[in-house]
Amino acid sequence: MANYGNLTNGAAPNKQGGYKNALYFSEIPDITTWQRPTAAGVTIGDTLAIAVAHTWAAGKTVNTWETKIGTVQHLTETGGDVGAKELIHIVRAEILGDSAAILEQLNRLLNDNTVFWLKDANCLIANAYYQLGDDCNPVSATVNFDSQTNNPEQVNGQKRYVLELRTKAKFYYTAALDFTP
User: pTM here?
Assistant: First the structure.
């Protein structure tokens, strides 16, 4: 397999900006069989593509958190020293509201081993997600809260939790996620 190939703007897939207004995730122990990309890919990209579905434990499924419209954003940064650089994938999203149930789940998220999936905003392909994290490189989460204000002269929105998720592992997942309760 070649290390590099030609990239052209006209043929580039998935150019529409943004993601569906949801975060999909599982705790790592909930997945009993992890699928992997092909280690010796035939074409460029095979080493980052997962085409067979993971298997979830009995009674475990993918969790869905609805997000504030338009807030799911994925960024990638470069980290490391010269000669030892790598990519760090960052997702930012906002969860509206404030309740005991929201806070309890976000507290757990801070220290649990999780994997997340994002869905393209165009939603045209049924089973096409970006997987962030895996059982070797779980997602690291930080959470901030913004209560806004009740000042009638400032229109600044609703209470919200702002999540930031970080990982070194990103894959193109083109298999089914298990949403069954």
Answer: 0.91
